[in-house]
């Protein structure tokens, strides 16, 4: 099979609702010079009209990020089997999506993972009840264990990057 000289880029943005994280992802995607970009979501994309026409969109049709893990894995493996790209990258956005991405792409060596962290760890220490406490503590444990399996981690502020780097024991780049 011929190796394509192009770079294949996947962006996993589970909940496209046109908030702050979404606007920055739209700017990032539209500013890229990649020929092959796919935005992956678990629901219908509300901001597709703001995206460059070359951007493909994949709706996984799930209710929760947790239920999308196997669908993400299946979709990425299917896409990778279609073409051999020079490089394949997935960018994931926000802690729950980052964890799902790492779990979904475990043992797939052909793709590099870049995690963008937007929320400070302190936000996971505020609870609204027992189940919220369980969920957020589980997220903290999974962040500590799984984030080091990514190829790069990006924080959106120096404080976030420093604290996250100390927490997980890996380098975090700041933008």
Descriptive keywords:
single chain, 175 residues, alpha/beta, Rossmann fold, 5 helices, globular
List the helices and strands and how they pair.
Elements: E1 3-12, H1 20-31, E2 36-41, E3 56-59, H2 69-82, E4 84-93, H3 95-104, E5 111-117, H4 130-146, E6 152-155, H5 158-168, E7 173-174
Helix pairs in contact: 2-3, 3-4
What does the model show?
By secondary structure, this protein is α/β, with parallel strands linked by helices. Helices cover 37% and strands 25% of the residues. The chain has helices at 20-31, 69-82, 95-104, 130-146, 158-168; strands at residues 3-12, 36-41, 56-59, 84-93, 111-117, 152-155, 173-174. Strands 3-2-1-4-5-6-7 form a seven-stranded parallel β-sheet. Helix 2 crosses helix 3 and helix 3 (95-104) crosses helix 4. The mean pLDDT is 86.
């Amino acid at each position: 099979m011929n190796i394509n000289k192009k770079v294949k880029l996947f962006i996993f943005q589970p909940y496209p609702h046109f908030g702050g994280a979404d606007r920055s992802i739209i700017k990032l995607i539209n500013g890229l010079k990649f020929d092959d970009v796919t935005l992956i979501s678990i629901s219908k994309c509300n901001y597709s009209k703001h995206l460059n026409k070359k951007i493909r969109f994949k709706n996984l049709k799930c209710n929760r990020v947790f239920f999308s893990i196997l669908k993400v894995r299946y979709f990425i493996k299917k896409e990778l089997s279609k073409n051999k790209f020079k490089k394949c990258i997935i960018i994931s956005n926000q802690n729950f999506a980052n964890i799902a991405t790492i779990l979904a792409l475990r043992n797939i060596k052909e793709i590099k993972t870049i995690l963008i962290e937007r929320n400070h760890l302190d936000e996971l220490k505020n609870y609204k009840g027992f189940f919220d406490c369980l969920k957020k503590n589980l997220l903290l444990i999974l962040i500590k264990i799984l984030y080091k399996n990514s190829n790069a981690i990006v924080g959106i502020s120096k404080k976030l990057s420093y604290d996250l780097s100390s927490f997980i024991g890996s380098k975090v780049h700041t933008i």
